[in-house]
């Protein structure tokens, strides 16, 4: 194991929401294909086009919405060999 965790999120349809959540660590989400709308702590951060890294601070509640079909995101952070900790997961209202 190289100490790096990468989670792929493939959003097949435009308008798909990634449920709001937060992590106990800073991390980068790499927008590899497509485009997304991003919210952090309930505030709109803007619309972003691939390729684009998106830095998320520890414990910041965040969510993404795909703006076009076949959008591909990768959540990337260090791993200490144990389960991946989610600080909190929240429903979108």
The shape is globular
What is the rounded distance between the termini?
38 Å
CATH class: Mainly Beta
Uncertain stretches: none
Number of contiguous helices = 0
- Category from helices, strands and their pairing: mainly beta
Q: What's the order of the H and E elements?
A: EEEEEEEEE
Tally the structural domains: 1
Rg, alpha carbons: 13 Å
Oligomer: single chain
**What profile does the largest beta sheet have?**
5 strands, antiparallel
Count of strand segments = 9
- What's the architecture, going by CATH? Sandwich
> What is the CATH homologous superfamily assignment?
Jelly Rolls
- Helix coverage percent of residues? under 10%
Strand content: over 45%
Question: Overall pLDDT, averaged?
Answer: 86
Strand order of the largest sheet: 5-4-7-2-9
Q: And the CATH topology?
A: Jelly Rolls
How does this structure look, described?
The chain is mostly beta strands and 93 residues long. The chain has a single domain, classed as Jelly Rolls (Sandwich), CATH 2.60.120. Helices cover 0% and strands 61% of the residues. The protein is built from no helices and 9 strands. A 5-stranded antiparallel beta sheet has the order 5-4-7-2-9, with no helix packed on it. Strands 1-8-3-6 form a 4-stranded antiparallel beta sheet, with no helix packed on it. The protein is globular and about 35 Å long. The termini are far apart. The relative contact order is 0.41. The mean pLDDT is 86.
Short description:
The chain is mainly β. It is built from no helices and nine strands.
Which terms would index this structure?
93 residues, mainly beta, Jelly Rolls, 5-stranded antiparallel β-sheet, 4-stranded antiparallel β-sheet, 0% helix, globular
């Amino acid at each position: 194991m190289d100490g790096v965790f990468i989670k792929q999120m493939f959003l097949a349809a435009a308008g798909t929401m990634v449920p709001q959540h937060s992590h106990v660590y800073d991390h980068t989400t790499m927008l590899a294909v497509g485009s997304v709308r991003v919210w952090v702590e309930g505030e709109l951060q803007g619309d972003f086009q691939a390729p684009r890294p998106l830095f998320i601070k520890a414990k910041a509640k965040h969510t993404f919405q795909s703006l076009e079909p076949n959008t591909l995101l990768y959540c990337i952070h260090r791993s200490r060999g144990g389960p991946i900790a989610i600080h909190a997961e929240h429903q979108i209202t």
